[in-house]
Design brief:
Two copies of one chain form a homodimer. The longest helix of chain A is centred in the C-terminal third of the chain and has 16 residues. Chain A is built from seven helices and seven strands, in the order βαβααβαβββααβα. The model of chain A has no long low-confidence stretch (mean pLDDT about 95). Chain A is an alpha/beta fold. Chain A has one domain: Rossmann fold (3-Layer(aba) Sandwich), CATH 3.40.50.360. At the A-B interface, helix 2, helix 4 and helix 6 of A face helix 2, helix 4 and helix 6 of B.
Chain lengths: ~190, ~190
């Protein structure tokens, strides 16, 4: 059993990096292989070009890295995202991963009437995301954008039911002991079935 | 007076392209200069790298194209975005424009207590966005993600009050006459003061 972790943060001493290490360890402690997709290290290009759009219409991933990422994901039981929330939302790099990897023919198919046929219905998806906003304000005032995006627009659309959003709010302001506790939480959730 | 239009669509015969032409014309008919930032044509790189993040901390835009874009925007009275909504959200290219251009020191400053000081409070912002979801379902079920992002998280944070979100829903399914009507609407809104 394999856990794929999609990771993005431009600064390699960020709290996201600590979450990555904790999640990796949590997955391995649960007896799984942990396969990390580090989008910055890979110099992934998040832009949908004309060819990618044509590929989407034909149900075929075009970007070779996106294709490789999907091949790594399709055998996994758990897909984990780790990234910072900027401007209420996922960074461009992560949005581009969604745009170029979640394709018809990869995560789902559609029949002639437009009905979605899930291709990875049993994949579990978890999103760990850091921000400087308090999590309740993010949810109530800013409209829980990443939750709505990942749970409803992306993976919900593709027929994946088990999507968990785990926000870590006001990361710059919280105590060291809280940060340690959160890493244990990330490790535990990464190890869940 | 100048209107800056930030445009992204990988396919140059898209309905977004028609909206671009209508908005340009609407701005010019209102006696303004229309300055178009075509992110694909510019091969803009939407990724925040390590240097960009360091620049954010120092209140200094690093990417030369992002710097040039801000220089073009700061003298404008109206900033218009035109893009397709994918997966409930703006494409990576547009999110990267936000990530790299909306910086402290450009759109806003923050004092030592963290209080935001708007630097472009009188800029008017309009977002024209196409999607295949019906606009009411986008708003009520999918959580109006682009509205929350642009109105609250991005430009609201930067102290800009006049932010208008104009969604065009189910664009593939609507009649030619509706599409024509929408282009007139886009032209009219682009010409508003």
């Amino acid at each position: 059993m394999k856990t794929v972790i999609v990771y993005y943060h431009p600064y390699n001493k960020s709290y996201c990096r600590a979450i990555l290490e904790a999640a990796k360890q949590g997955a391995m402690d649960a007896g799984r292989e942990a396969d990390v997709i580090d989008l910055s290290a890979d110099s992934f290009n998040p832009v949908m070009g004309k060819e990618d759009l044509q590929g989407f219409v034909r149900h075929e991933i075009i970007d070779p890295k996106a294709k490789e990422y999907f091949d790594r994901i399709k055998g996994a039981c758990h897909l984990i995202f780790i990234f910072p929330i900027w401007w209420g939302n996922m960074p461009a790099m992560v949005k581009g991963f969604i745009d170029k990897v979640v394709f018809p023919g990869s995560f789902y198919e559609q029949d002639n009437s437009g009905k979605v046929i899930p291709l990875l219905p049993n994949l579990k998806v978890t999103i760990f995301a850091t921000m400087n906003t308090p999590a309740p304000i993010y949810k109530l005032y800013f409209g829980n954008q990443v939750y709505n995006a990942m749970k409803k627009s992306v993976f919900g659309f593709a027929g994946i039911k088990d999507v968990k959003f785990v926000p870590f709010g006001t990361v710059k302001a919280v105590s060291a002991s809280k940060r340690e506790k959160w890493l244990k939480k990330a490790a535990r959730i990464a190890g869940e079935r």
